[in-house]
Design brief:
The complex is a heterodimer of chains A (172) and B (310).
Chain A lengths: L1 H9 L1 H8 L6 H26 L8 H4 L2 H22 L1 H4 L3 H25 L11 H23 L9 H8 L1
Helix pairs in contact in A: 2-5, 3-5, 3-8, 7-8
Chain B lengths: L2 H8 L2 H19 L2 H32 L7 H34 L5 H27 L21 H10 L3 H28 L7 H4 L3 H21 L1 H4 L3 H22 L1 H4 L9 H23 L8
Helix pairs in contact in B: 1-3, 2-3, 2-5, 3-4, 3-11, 4-5, 6-9, 7-9, 7-13, 11-13
């Protein structure tokens, strides 16, 4: 595992992201990651809010068009995130906060797909009230994304070599 | 023009400009004049927005003139604390005034409770702003100082120093505020994107009036970010105010206020019904809103890398 991470960190593009002084290297990759986050989480929040009863006049069918936009955000973040991981693979790759973030993103995406199947793939969804399990999924979606953002932000404050710092942060 | 110049120029907006807005608002309430009421609410929202750079440049101005001869450092501190209190109430007023505008569009009239809240908060803001301005005037105008002015006014529960110490001395506050800042960013950006993409022609089958319902959530994201963002600024102002990326971020953010007022109550977007193509004017506003918000996010994230003050 460590061998793979070391090779990743030593690769050309990883070195460029890490060591280039250009604004297009690390700063731009980080900024793209922020845009991707805003698109996928923000647009997903709109869908969650609609399922939870805000903007009930918005036809569910029309919101189906938001899914490709969210996928766009996801792809941007998968790519920019891969670069950010490669840049410091030997430290980020063994960080508990990083893996927590990965799990939370996977769960968020799984919930989003469940929402799509339950509500948006159902042609008659607009004719019926929002099913209860879809509302539960909407709440879960908001909580999971908030958790993923929290873990992502904490990566900037908690070094991978000091997992106990998380506890220190909470207790202090 | 340097930052203190901007402070001296802009500080008339939350005092004189806002005062005019409040007077018109109270007049409109008394005369039951709906159009005048909406105009005055717009003035109040804009004054609350302009109060942001007034506060930010004031912190810089204070730091830059602190050491000058004839300048009282204590009075600067008292002015800054009075201004912080006035600023907080002013932003609340702006938020509730925006809500009244949103309701006026949505339900033809703003709810009486919202209007009453605007009236109370606006009068309080004006009083607090006038007090902050008066103390501010004393910093460089010794000729108007009277005996009681030398007695310090203490508002110990909310001061620049108390905010600074909370943010810097409690380890978890900064990361927590950063996290909240990113959640607020995602919420407001997502709603901005969906509303403006509709105007540009994506999801044409939705009437804009139906998406209008989501606007308070977007505003909530902005409000949360104003609070968390101000915590960073008050904690380490010198890291931000002379940073060119921060200045751009603030300029673009303030410009989004015009777009916000447009989409809150203008006729064009509101009447863009299901399946209807929006007007060219509305599309221009929508494209500029997305561009402005993208700029705010861009310069915000690039803060540590442009300008080099971090």
């Amino acid at each position: 595992m460590m061998g793979v991470l070391e090779a990743l960190e030593a690769s050309g593009i990883s070195t460029w992201v890490r060591e280039s002084r250009s604004l297009f290297a690390f700063p731009m990759v980080l900024t793209l990651h922020t845009f991707g986050l805003a698109v996928i989480v923000g647009v997903n929040a709109v869908i969650d809010l609609r399922l939870l009863g805000f903007g009930t006049h918005i036809p569910l069918k029309s919101l189906k068009m938001l899914f490709p936009i969210m996928w766009g955000g996801f792809i941007v973040n998968a790519l920019s995130g891969s670069l950010l991981l490669a840049r410091a693979a030997t430290t980020v790759g063994i960080s508990g906060v990083f893996w927590t973030k990965m799990v939370l993103i996977a769960l968020s995406m799984w919930v989003l797909m469940r929402i799509k199947r339950r509500v948006f793939d159902d042609e008659s969804a607009d004719a019926r009230p929002i099913p209860n399990d879809a509302r539960v999924l909407a709440y879960a979606s908001i909580l999971l994304w908030a958790g993923a953002i929290t873990a992502g932000r904490l990566m900037a404050y908690i070094g991978p070599t000091r997992p106990e710092a998380l506890i220190g942060l909470l207790v202090k | 023009m340097n930052l203190p110049h901007w402070h001296l120029l802009l500080n008339h907006v939350p005092t004189v400009g806002f005062g005019v807005g409040v007077a018109l608002f109270l007049l409109a309430l008394a005369a039951r004049e709906q159009p005048l009421q909406r105009e005055s609410l717009r003035i109040i929202v804009l004054a609350a927005l302009v109060s942001i750079p007034v506060y930010l440049t004031g912190v810089s101005a204070g730091r830059l003139i602190e050491g000058l001869e004839g300048v009282s450092a204590i009075r600067i501190r008292i002015h800054a604390d009075a201004a912080l209190l006035a600023f907080v109430v002013m932003e609340l007023t702006g938020g509730v005034a925006w809500l009244a505008l949103w309701q006026a569009r949505r339900f033809t009239r703003a709810r009486p409770g919202t209007l009453a809240a605007v009236a109370l908060l606006a009068v309080a803001s004006f009083g607090l702003m006038a007090r902050a301005a008066y103390i501010g005037g004393l910093i460089r105008h010794p000729e108007v100082i009277s005996a009681e002015d030398t007695a310090p006014i203490e508002t110990a529960w909310l001061t620049n120093a108390s905010v600074k110490s909370l943010v810097l001395n409690t380890t978890s506050v900064w990361p927590a505020a950063e996290t909240i800042h990113f959640v607020g960013l995602a919420l407001s950006f997502g709603i901005v994107l969906v509303l403006n993409l509709r105007i540009l022609g994506v999801m044409k089958s939705v009437a804009f009036a139906d998406l209008h319902r989501l606007m308070p959530w977007g505003l909530m994201g902005v409000g949360v970010n104003l609070v968390s963002g101000m915590m960073f600024f008050i904690a380490i102002p010198e890291q931000y105010d002379t940073n060119v990326a921060f200045q751009w971020k603030m300029l673009l953010f303030l410009l989004t206020g015009v777009n916000l007022l447009y989409f809150t109550s203008a006729e064009d977007p509101w009447t863009t019904g299901a399946g209807v193509d929006a007007s060219i004017g509305a599309k221009a506003f929508a494209a500029s809103t997305i561009a402005l918000w993208a700029g705010v996010v861009f310069f915000g994230r690039m803060l540590p890398y442009i300008g080099g003050s971090f």
